């Protein structure tokens, strides 16, 4: 029967539409044609991991520009800041999540591993066929589950590289999204897609965890980049007691507190505790340890005895001679020590009594303690030392004290120059500094280093000559500088010890004095070793607390020097400050 023209047209159209479907069904029913799962977000991640695994094993490095023949060479070239390694940046960043912190150990799945990973979103079911694995139908429930999992990964910064933008964590995604224009605009779709799983401010996850069936409120885990390196090669870097690698170490860590330790044999270890809230670079300075030979040989023992005796022979403190006899009972100077001990015990002239008719004048003190440096290694005890010294001077010696912690160059200069306007001719000023110091060996000049100083930039260093100029311009009768820092000995000249005659104190109060007491000469000094204080500070504080009357700085030094030398490799010095207006006087400590 011949169909009318309209019906014939409809039949042809139906055959045209149905034929491709039939062909597709025929192909899918074959036994030799395995089906391919849809290219979901999970498959993308799996394919990227497979590609990274191949690169890690050197299979496809020829596809990238560069000369690396294996993955170790890729990492070596990547870690250079410039040069041939630059073209490996994209490859390393793409594969970083599958690698250890040092980039040299594979942490992801192997390409031939059939186990499911936690990040896999494809739900596998048993296939009725033997050769064709099937994928669970993409139902509405699966769509929500997969979208929530993808959003959870984005929230934890795992797949942000798949979106255009510079964000390294979710906080930066939100920050860029909330801008009305600019680079953040391309995060709009991501935030809108995930908004139902987030709090109103977009910073707290309100949906399910990827491995949790119950909904729990989860705070945003913020991370930051931590870079740690030192000034030596072959060091070991520990984070919270765990060895993480060596310089230069780069880690992405959650915000929080971390204990950093850098060590190498033969060097003083660097230790610091940080509160990581943003990207941070730690530069640890490891100082070479100068090994002190054991004092076993007779020559060394004799040298130690000589140094000890020379440091106490002019002292009037009987305890020092007792200590000498305890350490060297058969020593060369044992006989002299016994004679000196008997004389000073009989005369008891160690401390001069306070004269009631002497006008001592007012006492001021500028006390500086620097622990936390911007560019240099931090110190441990300087601030604690400064606080204790300030308290003793104020409470026991009636000083008007100005205490500055972590002072920069401007604060120190301003405080020193301020005394030129406020002190009178009968006043006394003590300046105590605990912090870093440095010696310019070529110029033979010493410097104080404020907290804003840098080793490679002397613009914020405080030259001793500048300090001397400030002291010379002050009207004060007595000025004394006490410097507990490295290489502080350049500020002093030797001072002759004098016997304290009855009129000695009266003469000292009438003569100008510009003197300095330093914790060491031209050598580094210890930042600890004195029960929470430096060795020098502990000895100085103890002598001030034990004093009962009037003691001169020279006499205090004679007792302090051996105490420090016995407990450390440093040698304190005391003397007048050259060209600062010294006129034969001495600084007096008057106990109230």
Question: Can you walk through the features of this model?
Answer:
The chain is an alpha+beta fold. The chain folds into four domains: 44-111 and 138-213, no CATH class; 223-288, Immunoglobulins (Immunoglobulin-like, Sandwich), CATH 2.60.40.10; 298-344, no CATH class; 353-590, Rossmann fold. Helices cover 34% and strands 19% of the residues. α11 (382-397) links the parallel β14 and β15. The protein is elongated.
The appropriate CATH architecture of the largest domain is: 3-Layer(aba) Sandwich
Distance separating the two termini: 133 Å
- Number of helices, where a helix is a run of at least 4 consecutive DSSP H or I residues: 16
Proportion in β-strands: 15-25%
Work out the number of β strands.
25
Quick tags:
592 residues, Immunoglobulin-like, 25 strands, 4 domains, 4-stranded antiparallel sheet
What's this, in brief?
This protein has 592 residues and is of the alpha+beta class.
Secondary structure elements and pairings:
Blueprint (H helix, E strand, L loop, with lengths): L4 H24 L12 H16 L14 H8 L10 H7 L28 E2 L8 E2 L4 H16 L14 H8 L10 H7 L9 E2 L12 E2 L3 E8 L5 E4 L2 E4 L3 E6 L1 E8 L3 E2 L1 E7 L3 E5 L2 E2 L9 H15 L5 H10 L6 H14 L15 E7 L12 H16 L2 E6 L3 H14 L5 E7 L1 E5 L4 E5 L12 E2 H10 L4 E7 L8 E2 L9 H7 L2 E6 L16 H12 L3 E3 H15 L5 E4 L11 E3 L2
Parallel strand pairs: 5-12, 14-15, 14-16, 16-20, 20-22
Antiparallel strand pairs: 1-2, 3-4, 5-8, 6-7, 6-9, 9-11, 10-13, 17-18, 18-19, 21-24, 22-24, 23-25
Helix pairs in contact: 9-10, 11-15, 15-16
């Amino acid at each position: 029967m011949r169909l009318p023209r309209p019906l014939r047209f409809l039949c042809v159209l139906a055959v045209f539409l149905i034929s491709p479907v039939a062909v597709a069904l025929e192909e899918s029913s074959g036994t030799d044609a395995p089906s391919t799962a849809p290219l979901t977000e999970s498959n993308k991640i799996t394919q990227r991991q497979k590609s990274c695994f191949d690169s890690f094993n050197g299979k496809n490095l020829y596809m990238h520009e560069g000369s690396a023949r294996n993955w170790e060479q890729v990492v070596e070239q990547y870690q250079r800041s410039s040069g041939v390694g630059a073209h490996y940046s994209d490859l390393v960043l793409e594969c970083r999540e599958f690698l250890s912190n040092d980039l040299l150990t594979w942490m992801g799945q192997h390409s031939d591993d059939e186990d499911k990973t936690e990040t896999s979103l494809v739900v596998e079911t048993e296939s009725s066929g033997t050769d064709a694995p099937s994928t669970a139908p993409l139902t509405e429930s699966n769509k929500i589950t997969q979208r929530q999992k993808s959003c959870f990964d984005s929230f934890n910064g795992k797949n942000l590289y798949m979106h255009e933008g510079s964000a390294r964590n979710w906080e930066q995604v939100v920050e860029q999204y909330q801008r009305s224009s600019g680079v953040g605009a391309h995060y709009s779709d991501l935030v809108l897609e995930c908004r139902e799983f987030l709090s109103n401010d977009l910073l707290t996850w309100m949906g399910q965890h990827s491995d949790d069936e119950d909904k729990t409120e989860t705070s945003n885990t913020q991370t930051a980049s931590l870079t740690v390196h030192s000034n030596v090669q072959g060091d070991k870097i520990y984070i919270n007691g765990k060895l993480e690698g060596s310089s230069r170490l780069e880690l992405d860590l959650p915000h929080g507190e971390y204990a950093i330790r850098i060590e190498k044999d033969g060097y003083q270890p660097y230790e610091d505790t940080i509160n990581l809230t943003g990207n941070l670079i730690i530069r640890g300075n490891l100082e070479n340890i100068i090994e002190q030979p054991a004092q076993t040989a007779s020559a060394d023992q004799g040298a130690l005895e000589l140094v000890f005796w020379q440091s106490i022979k002019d002292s009037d403190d009987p305890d020092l001679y007792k200590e000498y006899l305890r350490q060297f009972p058969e020593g060369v100077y044992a006989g002299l020590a016994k004679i000196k001990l008997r004389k000073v015990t009989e005369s008891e002239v160690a401390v001069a009594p306070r004269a009631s008719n002497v006008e001592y004048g007012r006492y001021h003190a500028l006390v500086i303690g620097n622990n936390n440096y911007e560019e240099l290694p931090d110190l441990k005890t300087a601030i604690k030392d400064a606080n204790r010294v300030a308290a003793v001077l104020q409470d026991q010696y009636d000083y008007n004290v100005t205490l500055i912690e972590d002072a920069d160059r401007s604060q120190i200069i301003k405080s020193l120059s301020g005394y030129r306007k406020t002190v009178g001719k009968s006043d006394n000023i003590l300046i105590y500094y605990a912090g870093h110091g440095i010696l310019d060996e070529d110029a033979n000049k010493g410097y104080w280093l404020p907290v804003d100083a840098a080793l490679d930039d002397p613009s914020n260093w405080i030259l001793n000559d500048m300090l001397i100029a400030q002291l010379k311009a002050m009207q004060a009768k007595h000025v004394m500088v006490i410097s507990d820092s490295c290489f502080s000995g350049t500020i002093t000249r030797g001072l002759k010890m004098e016997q304290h005659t009855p009129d000695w104190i009266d003469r000292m109060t009438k003569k100008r004095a510009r003197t300095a007491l330093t914790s060491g000469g031209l050598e580094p000094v210890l930042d600890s070793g004195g029960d929470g204080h430096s060795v020098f500070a502990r000895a100085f504080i103890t002598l001030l607390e034990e004093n009962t009357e009037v003691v001169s700085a020279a006499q205090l030094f004679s007792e302090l020097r051996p105490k420090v030398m016995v407990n450390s490799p440093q040698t304190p010095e005391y003397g007048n400050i050259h060209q600062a207006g010294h006129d034969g006087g001495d600084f007096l400590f008057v106990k109230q």
